[in-house]
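Slide 14.
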Amino acid sequence: MNQIYETLCGICGAGHVLAQEPMSRHTTFRTGGPADVLVQPEADQIGAVLEACRRAQIPWTVIGNGSNLLVGDGGIRGVVLEIGKQMSDIVIEGTTVTAGAGAMLSSIASRAAAAELTGMEFASGIPGSLGGAVVMNAGAYGGEMKDILQEVTVLTPEGALQTLSVEELDLSYRHSIIPEKGYLVTGAVLNLQPGKAEEIQAIMDDLKEKRVSKQPLEYPSAGSTFKRPEGYFAGKLIQDAGLCGFQVGGAQVSEKHCGFVINRDHATSADICQLMQQVSEIVYEKFGVRLEPEVKKIGEF
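Slide 15: predicted structure.
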């Protein structure tokens, strides 16, 4: 790994390449062991980073803000590409917003509101980056990324830049073709609508109040832990199963919102993983409904 570390330092600068970096610093669960090497590239450096990994036959993993990830306590072997503030430019022209994959949804929503553009309000409180939101068609409060996406720029596994229309992304509930194709999102274009600043801000303030009052924002988590089963609500099933406050180690089903698993007290990823498995099994035994994780597991468990 010393050789790839030196190579990546030459590409991105030593300040953006970290060896044995704890992933607990890069996930909203605040858990996860070390990545062999973590690199924070700019958009025009990604191709060279991936080519260096290919030549050295070293695996790579792409992350954004880490808001939907559970990284194993054993960490991640190979190279982790963190698409973050190095790729977070936001440009607004008319009703079109062009942003880098590392731009935070909250920042884009704030900029859009200031430009009197509506349509992004639902995403203003999602603690993720644009790239991750596109990959999983993130949504909240009745809105989804597919409602506002116009096109997405990706890097193919062969290293070519490609622009995909929203129709080509095959977006559905928490799904896109991006993971199965092995694409890496570099940026996206959003199509919003003209609005009134005070009305847009009022909607955002109302959604913020709902989040603060109903979600356990005071604890590390990855947001909604399970996907919504068809015809049900995951949080309601978990509550009805008597699992409110259920705990494994430092991980707990939130007493404020049962759809959230939280890092209550120095939880490990193993605690969280075991808790999720037990919750899923108990709900299935009681109601015959299988809860599927919305959180993505990566690394060594």
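Speaker note: The first helix runs from residue 2 to 12.
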